[in-house]
Write a structure and sequence with these properties.
The chain is of the alpha+beta class. It is 33% helix and 20% strand. Strands 1, 2, 3, 4, 5 and 6 form a six-stranded antiparallel sheet that branches. Strand 1 and strand 2 form a beta hairpin.
Length: 183
């Protein structure tokens, strides 16, 4: 192996990622999304209410102007994980998506596509069970299969269709196949 002047000989290319994995293993007790959702509902119900309010607010409706940004809400830390940031966007559903949802077997008419993007303000990767726990706290338990996860880089994005009463609708995951490039 060729030695470089600026790189210490004790440095191994895998040591950085191994150290990162070891640090995550120390701080990451084994939890599941249901446990996180229960913790969120019990300890942070005001934040869940605020997220539901933001979801219905006219400002969350996506606009075609360049300076529009989705509303952002700081999420408090749960189960030994630091604070997170959630941005919520709402998109109107077009006739093609409506017919596809009806073809999938859903009888209710979809009104909006909800996109919830969860990030860590420090730029770290968000643990999947923590992000999913926040989403499960937002929706009724029997509709968890209507939510689709799109992971991209450090952020975790969840999308789902809702009717006019903001109740999640079943939809095929293939509808959101190219959405991770857009997110």
């Amino acid at each position: 192996m060729k030695k470089h002047k600026n790189i210490p000989t004790s440095m191994n290319p895998r040591s950085i990622s191994q150290a990162r994995q070891a640090a995550q293993a120390k701080r990451a007790p084994l939890v599941d999304a249901a446990t996180v959702a229960n913790e969120v509902l019990f300890a942070h119900s005001d934040t869940v209410d605020a997220l539901n309010s933001i979801m219905r607010h006219p400002r969350s409706l996506n606009r075609d102007i360049a300076n529009w940004r989705p509303p952002i809400k700081q999420l408090p830390g749960v189960i030994d994980h630091g604070d997170l940031t959630a941005s919520i966007s709402r998109f109107r559903v077009g006739p093609r998506a409506i017919s596809r949802i009806h073809g999938y077997g859903e009888r209710r008419k979809p009104a909006y596509l909800i996109r919830l993007r969860i990030t860590d303000p420090a730029g770290l990767e968000v643990r999947p069970e923590i992000a999913e726990g926040w989403v499960r706290a937002l929706i009724p338990p029997h509709t968890a299969t209507a939510v689709h996860e799109i992971s991209s880089g450090q952020a975790t994005t969840f999308v789902w269709m809702v009717d006019r009463d903001y109740q999640p609708l079943r939809s095929p995951s293939s509808m959101f196949a190219g959405l991770n490039q857009a997110a």
